[in-house]
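User: Okay, second chain of the day. Same drill as before: sequence in, C-alpha coordinates out.
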Amino acid sequence: MPYSEQELDRLSRTLEKDFKLLQTLKLIQDYHSRVFKCPKCGSSDLERVSLLQYKCRQCGSTLIYPPFSPSDFSPNIPFSHILELVNLGIIEAAHGGSKGISYVLVKPELVKRVLEDKGFIEEMPKIELPELEGELESEEFFNLISDFRSIVNLILKSVKSGSSAHFLLLGPKISLKSLIIEELTRIPGSYFYVPGADPSLDEVLWSVKPNPLIIPNLDKMKSSVDLSTLVNFISSNKVFVRKVGDVIQHRSTITASSSSERGIPRDLISYFITFHLPPIEDEELRRKIMTKLVMERSGKSEKLANYIAGKSSLFSDFGFREFLELAKLCDDEGCVDSVVSLLLKYSKPSEKKRKSKGQKS
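Assistant: Same drill. C-alpha coordinates below.
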Protein backbone atom coordinates (compact mmCIF):
# COMPACT_ATOMS: atom_id res chain seq x y z
CA MET A 1 0.00 0.00 0.00
CA PRO A 2 1.54 3.37 -1.05
CA TYR A 3 2.15 6.17 1.41
CA SER A 4 2.23 9.97 1.24
CA GLU A 5 4.99 12.37 2.26
CA GLN A 6 2.67 13.65 4.97
CA GLU A 7 2.43 10.13 6.44
CA LEU A 8 6.22 9.79 6.31
CA ASP A 9 6.70 13.13 8.05
CA ARG A 10 4.12 12.31 10.73
CA LEU A 11 5.69 8.94 11.51
CA SER A 12 9.21 10.42 11.56
CA ARG A 13 8.19 13.12 14.04
CA THR A 14 6.50 10.54 16.26
CA LEU A 15 9.63 8.39 16.31
CA GLU A 16 11.76 11.36 17.36
CA LYS A 17 9.72 11.50 20.57
CA ASP A 18 9.91 7.76 21.32
CA PHE A 19 12.99 5.86 20.10
CA LYS A 20 11.67 2.57 21.50
CA LEU A 21 8.80 2.77 19.03
CA LEU A 22 11.42 2.44 16.29
CA GLN A 23 12.55 -0.86 17.81
CA THR A 24 8.93 -2.05 17.82
CA LEU A 25 8.63 -1.17 14.13
CA LYS A 26 11.76 -3.22 13.42
CA LEU A 27 10.24 -6.25 15.17
CA ILE A 28 7.04 -5.92 13.14
CA GLN A 29 8.94 -5.37 9.88
CA ASP A 30 11.06 -8.48 10.50
CA TYR A 31 7.90 -10.50 11.12
CA HIS A 32 6.31 -9.13 7.95
CA SER A 33 9.38 -9.98 5.86
CA ARG A 34 9.23 -13.58 7.05
CA VAL A 35 5.53 -14.24 6.39
CA PHE A 36 4.67 -11.92 3.49
CA LYS A 37 5.48 -14.24 0.61
CA CYS A 38 3.66 -16.65 -1.65
CA PRO A 39 3.56 -20.18 -0.16
CA LYS A 40 3.88 -21.67 -3.65
CA CYS A 41 6.57 -19.66 -5.49
CA GLY A 42 8.08 -17.58 -2.66
CA SER A 43 7.40 -14.23 -4.37
CA SER A 44 6.65 -11.13 -2.28
CA ASP A 45 4.83 -9.45 -5.18
CA LEU A 46 1.36 -9.79 -3.65
CA GLU A 47 -1.87 -7.93 -4.36
CA ARG A 48 -4.18 -7.19 -1.45
CA VAL A 49 -7.68 -8.67 -1.83
CA SER A 50 -8.95 -8.10 1.72
CA LEU A 51 -7.50 -7.36 5.15
CA LEU A 52 -5.97 -10.82 5.48
CA GLN A 53 -6.10 -12.20 1.94
CA TYR A 54 -3.53 -11.56 -0.79
CA LYS A 55 -3.05 -12.85 -4.32
CA CYS A 56 0.36 -13.58 -5.83
CA ARG A 57 0.94 -11.63 -9.04
CA GLN A 58 3.51 -14.20 -10.17
CA CYS A 59 1.62 -17.51 -9.94
CA GLY A 60 -1.92 -16.54 -8.94
CA SER A 61 -1.90 -18.37 -5.60
CA THR A 62 -3.69 -16.89 -2.60
CA LEU A 63 -2.12 -16.15 0.77
CA ILE A 64 -3.83 -15.68 4.12
CA TYR A 65 -1.69 -13.15 5.98
CA PRO A 66 -1.10 -14.49 9.52
CA PRO A 67 -1.79 -11.60 11.93
CA PHE A 68 0.43 -11.03 14.93
CA SER A 69 -0.27 -10.49 18.60
CA PRO A 70 1.89 -8.25 20.86
CA SER A 71 2.66 -11.34 22.97
CA ASP A 72 4.21 -13.10 19.94
CA PHE A 73 7.34 -11.00 20.32
CA SER A 74 10.12 -11.02 22.88
CA PRO A 75 10.08 -8.60 24.55
CA ASN A 76 6.30 -8.17 24.21
CA ILE A 77 5.22 -5.06 22.30
CA PRO A 78 3.83 -2.42 24.71
CA PHE A 79 0.12 -1.74 24.23
CA SER A 80 0.89 1.99 24.02
CA HIS A 81 2.95 1.27 20.88
CA ILE A 82 0.07 -0.73 19.39
CA LEU A 83 -2.33 2.19 19.95
CA GLU A 84 0.15 4.66 18.45
CA LEU A 85 0.70 2.55 15.33
CA VAL A 86 -3.05 2.01 14.87
CA ASN A 87 -3.62 5.78 15.12
CA LEU A 88 -0.88 6.35 12.54
CA GLY A 89 -2.49 3.85 10.17
CA ILE A 90 0.58 1.59 10.20
CA ILE A 91 -1.23 -1.47 11.53
CA GLU A 92 -4.88 -2.53 11.68
CA ALA A 93 -6.76 -4.78 14.09
CA ALA A 94 -7.66 -8.11 12.48
CA HIS A 95 -9.61 -10.26 14.91
CA GLY A 96 -9.71 -11.50 18.48
CA GLY A 97 -8.36 -14.83 19.69
CA SER A 98 -6.91 -16.69 22.65
CA LYS A 99 -4.14 -14.09 22.86
CA GLY A 100 -6.46 -11.11 22.42
CA ILE A 101 -6.71 -8.85 19.37
CA SER A 102 -4.33 -9.59 16.49
CA TYR A 103 -2.96 -7.06 14.02
CA VAL A 104 -1.63 -6.79 10.48
CA LEU A 105 0.94 -4.43 8.98
CA VAL A 106 -0.80 -2.39 6.26
CA LYS A 107 1.94 0.15 5.46
CA PRO A 108 5.06 -2.04 4.97
CA GLU A 109 6.62 0.33 2.40
CA LEU A 110 6.35 3.25 4.81
CA VAL A 111 7.88 1.26 7.67
CA LYS A 112 10.72 0.04 5.46
CA ARG A 113 11.43 3.61 4.31
CA VAL A 114 11.62 4.91 7.88
CA LEU A 115 13.84 2.04 9.04
CA GLU A 116 16.20 2.62 6.10
CA ASP A 117 16.35 6.36 6.87
CA LYS A 118 17.17 5.60 10.51
CA GLY A 119 19.85 3.06 9.57
CA PHE A 120 17.93 0.06 10.94
CA ILE A 121 18.02 -1.72 7.58
CA GLU A 122 21.53 -2.01 6.16
CA GLU A 123 22.39 -3.07 2.67
CA MET A 124 24.20 -6.39 2.49
CA PRO A 125 27.82 -5.98 1.42
CA LYS A 126 28.68 -7.07 -2.09
CA ILE A 127 30.49 -10.37 -1.69
CA GLU A 128 33.22 -11.05 -4.20
CA LEU A 129 36.24 -13.28 -4.36
CA PRO A 130 39.40 -11.20 -4.84
CA GLU A 131 40.26 -10.78 -8.51
CA LEU A 132 43.41 -12.74 -9.26
CA GLU A 133 46.03 -12.30 -11.92
CA GLY A 134 45.56 -13.43 -15.49
CA GLU A 135 48.07 -16.26 -15.38
CA LEU A 136 45.90 -18.08 -12.87
CA GLU A 137 42.71 -17.88 -14.89
CA SER A 138 42.50 -21.62 -15.43
CA GLU A 139 39.36 -23.75 -15.49
CA GLU A 140 40.04 -24.67 -11.86
CA PHE A 141 40.21 -20.99 -10.97
CA PHE A 142 36.93 -20.11 -12.68
CA ASN A 143 35.21 -23.09 -11.06
CA LEU A 144 36.52 -21.92 -7.68
CA ILE A 145 35.09 -18.42 -8.18
CA SER A 146 31.77 -19.77 -9.44
CA ASP A 147 31.36 -22.18 -6.52
CA PHE A 148 32.34 -19.52 -3.98
CA ARG A 149 29.82 -17.01 -5.28
CA SER A 150 27.06 -19.59 -5.63
CA ILE A 151 27.37 -20.80 -2.03
CA VAL A 152 27.70 -17.32 -0.53
CA ASN A 153 24.75 -16.01 -2.54
CA LEU A 154 22.66 -18.99 -1.42
CA ILE A 155 23.41 -18.20 2.22
CA LEU A 156 22.76 -14.49 1.67
CA LYS A 157 19.41 -15.32 0.06
CA SER A 158 18.39 -17.16 3.23
CA VAL A 159 19.61 -14.29 5.44
CA LYS A 160 17.73 -11.65 3.46
CA SER A 161 14.49 -13.60 3.12
CA GLY A 162 14.31 -14.84 6.72
CA SER A 163 13.64 -18.35 5.45
CA SER A 164 16.02 -19.81 8.05
CA ALA A 165 17.80 -22.40 5.95
CA HIS A 166 20.96 -23.72 7.61
CA PHE A 167 24.31 -24.67 6.11
CA LEU A 168 27.22 -26.90 7.13
CA LEU A 169 30.60 -26.38 5.45
CA LEU A 170 32.95 -29.36 5.72
CA GLY A 171 36.58 -29.22 4.67
CA PRO A 172 40.14 -28.23 5.62
CA LYS A 173 41.15 -24.69 6.53
CA ILE A 174 42.73 -24.08 3.13
CA SER A 175 39.47 -24.46 1.21
CA LEU A 176 36.43 -22.43 0.23
CA LYS A 177 35.14 -23.10 3.75
CA SER A 178 37.47 -20.52 5.28
CA LEU A 179 36.84 -17.96 2.54
CA ILE A 180 33.07 -18.27 2.91
CA ILE A 181 33.15 -17.98 6.71
CA GLU A 182 35.45 -14.94 6.44
CA GLU A 183 33.02 -13.20 4.09
CA LEU A 184 29.93 -14.00 6.17
CA THR A 185 31.43 -12.26 9.21
CA ARG A 186 31.17 -8.98 7.25
CA ILE A 187 27.37 -9.13 7.06
CA PRO A 188 25.63 -6.61 9.37
CA GLY A 189 23.94 -8.55 12.16
CA SER A 190 26.24 -11.58 11.95
CA TYR A 191 27.68 -13.18 15.09
CA PHE A 192 30.70 -15.49 15.30
CA TYR A 193 29.94 -17.97 18.09
CA VAL A 194 32.78 -20.18 19.28
CA PRO A 195 31.51 -23.45 20.87
CA GLY A 196 32.05 -23.48 24.61
CA ALA A 197 32.46 -19.71 24.81
CA ASP A 198 30.78 -17.38 27.27
CA PRO A 199 27.99 -16.23 26.98
CA SER A 200 26.20 -19.47 26.16
CA LEU A 201 24.38 -20.04 22.89
CA ASP A 202 20.91 -19.41 24.36
CA GLU A 203 22.05 -16.07 25.79
CA VAL A 204 23.55 -15.03 22.44
CA LEU A 205 20.32 -15.84 20.59
CA TRP A 206 18.34 -13.98 23.26
CA SER A 207 20.44 -10.84 23.65
CA VAL A 208 22.07 -10.42 20.22
CA LYS A 209 19.44 -12.01 17.94
CA PRO A 210 22.07 -12.60 15.23
CA ASN A 211 21.38 -13.25 11.58
CA PRO A 212 23.39 -15.01 10.32
CA LEU A 213 24.79 -17.02 13.23
CA ILE A 214 28.22 -18.42 12.36
CA ILE A 215 29.50 -21.43 14.31
CA PRO A 216 33.06 -22.56 13.47
CA ASN A 217 34.27 -26.01 14.54
CA LEU A 218 30.80 -27.40 15.16
CA ASP A 219 32.43 -30.73 16.07
CA LYS A 220 33.89 -28.97 19.16
CA MET A 221 30.43 -28.18 20.54
CA LYS A 222 30.30 -30.67 23.42
CA SER A 223 27.97 -28.87 25.84
CA SER A 224 24.69 -30.78 26.06
CA VAL A 225 22.94 -27.48 26.82
CA ASP A 226 24.31 -25.79 23.70
CA LEU A 227 23.56 -28.83 21.53
CA SER A 228 20.00 -28.98 22.87
CA THR A 229 19.59 -25.24 22.31
CA LEU A 230 20.88 -25.56 18.75
CA VAL A 231 18.61 -28.48 17.82
CA ASN A 232 15.53 -26.82 19.33
CA PHE A 233 16.30 -23.53 17.63
CA ILE A 234 16.89 -25.08 14.20
CA SER A 235 13.76 -27.21 14.40
CA SER A 236 11.35 -24.65 15.87
CA ASN A 237 12.98 -21.17 15.79
CA LYS A 238 12.45 -21.12 19.56
CA VAL A 239 14.99 -20.86 22.37
CA PHE A 240 14.61 -21.50 26.08
CA VAL A 241 16.76 -18.88 27.82
CA ARG A 242 17.89 -20.29 31.15
CA LYS A 243 18.94 -16.89 32.47
CA VAL A 244 15.40 -15.50 32.34
CA GLY A 245 13.43 -18.75 32.36
CA ASP A 246 11.52 -17.82 29.24
CA VAL A 247 11.09 -19.04 25.66
CA ILE A 248 11.83 -16.59 22.85
CA GLN A 249 11.20 -16.83 19.12
CA HIS A 250 13.81 -15.79 16.57
CA ARG A 251 14.71 -16.62 12.99
CA SER A 252 18.30 -16.83 11.82
CA THR A 253 20.33 -18.54 9.14
CA ILE A 254 22.98 -20.71 10.78
CA THR A 255 26.20 -21.45 8.94
CA ALA A 256 28.42 -23.93 10.76
CA SER A 257 31.76 -25.38 9.74
CA SER A 258 33.95 -28.33 10.63
CA SER A 259 36.86 -30.28 9.20
CA SER A 260 34.65 -33.38 8.98
CA GLU A 261 31.36 -34.89 10.20
CA ARG A 262 33.19 -36.76 12.95
CA GLY A 263 32.10 -35.54 16.37
CA ILE A 264 28.84 -33.99 15.13
CA PRO A 265 25.64 -35.81 16.17
CA ARG A 266 24.08 -37.39 13.08
CA ASP A 267 20.59 -36.11 13.88
CA LEU A 268 22.02 -32.57 14.03
CA ILE A 269 23.68 -32.93 10.61
CA SER A 270 20.31 -33.81 9.09
CA TYR A 271 19.07 -30.26 9.73
CA PHE A 272 21.79 -28.70 7.55
CA ILE A 273 22.38 -28.31 3.84
CA THR A 274 25.89 -29.75 3.73
CA PHE A 275 28.74 -28.80 1.39
CA HIS A 276 31.89 -30.96 1.29
CA LEU A 277 34.61 -28.53 0.21
CA PRO A 278 37.96 -29.98 -0.94
CA PRO A 279 41.32 -28.32 -0.23
CA ILE A 280 42.69 -25.77 -2.70
CA GLU A 281 45.57 -27.93 -3.91
CA ASP A 282 47.36 -25.42 -6.16
CA GLU A 283 49.97 -23.74 -3.92
CA GLU A 284 50.39 -20.75 -6.24
CA LEU A 285 46.64 -20.20 -6.33
CA ARG A 286 46.46 -20.34 -2.52
CA ARG A 287 49.26 -17.82 -2.27
CA LYS A 288 47.61 -15.41 -4.67
CA ILE A 289 44.30 -15.62 -2.81
CA MET A 290 46.05 -14.98 0.52
CA THR A 291 47.93 -12.02 -0.95
CA LYS A 292 44.76 -10.37 -2.19
CA LEU A 293 42.88 -11.06 1.05
CA VAL A 294 45.65 -9.56 3.16
CA MET A 295 45.79 -6.48 0.91
CA GLU A 296 42.03 -5.92 0.93
CA ARG A 297 41.28 -6.74 4.57
CA SER A 298 44.33 -5.26 6.31
CA GLY A 299 45.42 -2.56 3.88
CA LYS A 300 48.98 -3.90 3.55
CA SER A 301 51.09 -3.27 0.47
CA GLU A 302 51.17 -5.94 -2.22
CA LYS A 303 54.84 -6.62 -1.46
CA LEU A 304 54.26 -7.24 2.27
CA ALA A 305 51.04 -9.16 1.63
CA ASN A 306 52.85 -11.44 -0.80
CA TYR A 307 55.66 -11.94 1.74
CA ILE A 308 53.14 -12.97 4.42
CA ALA A 309 51.36 -15.30 2.00
CA GLY A 310 54.71 -16.86 1.12
CA LYS A 311 54.89 -18.28 4.64
CA SER A 312 51.82 -20.44 4.02
CA SER A 313 53.90 -23.49 3.11
CA LEU A 314 55.36 -23.51 6.65
CA PHE A 315 52.01 -23.97 8.41
CA SER A 316 49.76 -26.78 7.28
CA ASP A 317 47.36 -26.03 10.18
CA PHE A 318 46.87 -22.41 9.15
CA GLY A 319 43.87 -21.20 7.17
CA PHE A 320 43.11 -17.86 5.53
CA ARG A 321 41.90 -16.34 8.81
CA GLU A 322 45.19 -17.05 10.61
CA PHE A 323 47.17 -15.23 7.94
CA LEU A 324 44.83 -12.25 8.19
CA GLU A 325 45.52 -12.17 11.94
CA LEU A 326 49.27 -12.34 11.25
CA ALA A 327 48.92 -9.37 8.89
CA LYS A 328 47.35 -7.29 11.67
CA LEU A 329 50.51 -7.67 13.77
CA CYS A 330 53.14 -6.60 11.28
CA ASP A 331 53.98 -3.64 9.07
CA ASP A 332 57.33 -4.92 7.76
CA GLU A 333 59.07 -8.15 6.76
CA GLY A 334 61.27 -8.17 9.86
CA CYS A 335 58.21 -8.34 12.10
CA VAL A 336 56.78 -11.16 9.96
CA ASP A 337 60.01 -13.15 10.31
CA SER A 338 60.05 -12.61 14.07
CA VAL A 339 56.45 -13.78 14.55
CA VAL A 340 56.90 -16.74 12.20
CA SER A 341 60.05 -17.76 14.09
CA LEU A 342 58.10 -17.82 17.36
CA LEU A 343 55.26 -19.77 15.79
CA LEU A 344 57.65 -22.36 14.40
CA LYS A 345 59.42 -22.67 17.73
CA TYR A 346 56.20 -23.33 19.60
CA SER A 347 54.22 -25.21 16.98
CA LYS A 348 52.81 -28.68 17.59
CA PRO A 349 55.44 -31.42 18.17
CA SER A 350 54.25 -33.29 15.08
CA GLU A 351 54.63 -30.12 13.05
CA LYS A 352 58.16 -29.54 14.36
CA LYS A 353 59.18 -33.04 13.43
CA ARG A 354 57.74 -32.66 9.94
CA LYS A 355 59.45 -29.29 9.43
CA SER A 356 62.74 -30.69 10.72
CA LYS A 357 62.63 -33.59 8.28
CA GLY A 358 61.73 -31.23 5.48
CA GLN A 359 64.64 -28.91 6.25
CA LYS A 360 67.16 -31.80 6.37
CA SER A 361 66.08 -33.03 3.01
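The CA atoms of residues 256 and 361 lie 40 Å apart.

User: Thanks, on to the next one.
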